[in-house]
Amino acid sequence: MQYDVLHLIGPVPGGSSFPSSHTAAAFSVFWMIVWQKKKGWIWAGLMYGLLVGFSRMYLGAHYPSDILGGIVSAAIGSYLAYFCIKKEKWFNISHRSQE
Asked: Which residues of the chain have pLDDT under 70?
């Protein structure tokens, strides 16, 4: 396989790549910041996620659709986690007895 424009770094990755788990992990951090309304950290979290996603495309490991799939799966997964934590039914964190 010859690439005229693309310069690969290392071997050509193979196997399943949808969604990008690296991007999903990075954007999970971003989405948790958004759900918790930590306004001072939103830009840092977004930049982190975008840099990870771009680096995965730059290295030839993922297509843009893989990155988008990682972003969407991170949004869904992190919202479900945030919802469960906010319910406090399963995680009784704020009502611990102080001894």
From this structure: 1-16, 88-99
- The span from the CA of 43 to the CA of 69, in Å, is 21
Q: Please report how the helices 64-87 and 42-58 are oriented relative to each other, as an axis angle in degrees rounded to 10.
A: 150
DSSP calls for 44-68: HHHHHHHHHHHHHHHTTS--HHHHH
If DSSP codes are grouped into helix, strand and coil, which group holds residue 43?
Answer: helix
The dihedral over CA atoms of 33, 36, 38, 39, expressed in degrees to the nearest 10, equals 90
Nearest to residue 73, comparing CAs of 38, 15, 26?
A: 26
* Residue 18 in tokens: 């949808």
DSSP symbol at 40: G
Against a cut of 0.90, is the pTM above it? Answer: no
